Amino acid sequence: MSHLTVDSIISAGAYNRLVMDHEATERAALLDLKHKYLPALFTILQTHGVTDFVEPHLLHRHFMLHEGEAVVHKTLEIPATADLPGTPVDIAKVISCPESVKMSLSPLLWMASSNGRLEAYEYGLPALASHTAPKPSISSKMWDSFASAFAAHVHAAGIADIVSLKSKQCINGGEFVAPDMRVLFRLPMDAIEVQPGSVLLESGWGFDAETEPDGDPPKTQDRHVTQVVVTKGGTKAVSHKVEPKGKSAFDPKEVPLPYTDAMWASAQSKGFWAVNKEVGVAA
């Protein structure tokens, strides 16, 4: 099915034109995206029967790409220890995508194109197999009908530059970014303990399919974990929490050190990113 395969990856130029994370968050807040626009989007998802497959996401980027590169996600399963429960972690990394890699990718995030279609801009490796949710059944015809309706709506509403779709195969949680390494880590919120000085910026939402979309506000599913700094001019600047490398990348009170060690090791492991290879961390 076309919506579950990758025929070509987004060009570096197109990806680099996406709005940066904190700028997209600021624009979403100014528009009151969560309350004024998301309920209508959920109605479209519900009408087309795709609420078990995708959810609204903030269209944004964290990194700059070179041509032939893509942001690729893979799930790391960290096993339980005597002191900590096990947890899945979504690791997204900029990697080179020759034909041999592209054939193993699956789309995870889509944006609305100007021609009324949905274009994948971030991908999963290997072919959704490492992601935890069961793969729903959705026909190409159903997907194309939904894609056309979704794209038309977000362009007409003027929000196509900040709204995208995220596969429910991908983990929800708090995102930590390492800009110098061009790596992102997303942990379930129950695996972290946000500390004073950290701020959560919303980046993904979901609805309870059992309730009406105009009832309760959408639930926040994804968040950027950042720091907000007040400058001499009185403005607020968003700063990523993560250092370029090393065990000091996270506050151990915020992310347990064993999780940090496992994430950094996997992010830098050639074996973890090998095509068609599932990798966990030995207990």
Could you describe the 3D structure shown?
With 283 residues, the chain is of the alpha+beta class. It has helices at residues 12-16, 21-31, 33-36, 38-47, 99-102, 140-157, 257-267, and strands at residues 54-58, 69-78, 87-96, 106-112, 118-124, 163-167, 173-178, 183-187, 198-206, 219-230, 236-240. The longest helix is centred in the middle third of the chain and has 18 residues, at 140-157. Residues 127-134 and 277-283 have low confidence and may be disordered.
Give the SSE map.
Layout (H helix, E strand, L loop, with lengths): L11 H5 L4 H11 L1 H4 L1 H10 L6 E5 L10 E10 L8 E10 L2 H4 L3 E7 L5 E7 L15 H18 L5 E5 L5 E6 L4 E5 L10 E9 L12 E12 L5 E5 L16 H11 L16
Parallel strand pairs: 2-5, 7-10
Antiparallel strand pairs: 1-6, 2-3, 3-8, 4-5, 4-6, 7-8, 9-10, 10-11
Query: Unreliable runs, pLDDT <50, ≥5 residues?
Result: 127-134, 277-283
Quickly count the helices: 7
The pLDDT mean sits at 81
What's the main sheet like? 11 strands, mixed
Helix content: 10-25%
Overall form = globular
Question: What are the main properties of this structure?
Answer:
eleven-stranded mixed β-sheet, disordered C terminus, alpha+beta, 283 residues
Concise structural overview:
This protein has 283 residues and is α+β, with helices and mostly antiparallel strands. The chain has helices at 12-16, 21-31, 33-36, 38-47, 99-102, 140-157, 257-267; strands spanning 54-58, 69-78, 87-96, 106-112, 118-124, 163-167, 173-178, 183-187, 198-206, 219-230, 236-240. Strands 1, 2, 3, 4, 5, 6, 7, 8, 9, 10 and 11 form an eleven-stranded mixed sheet that branches.
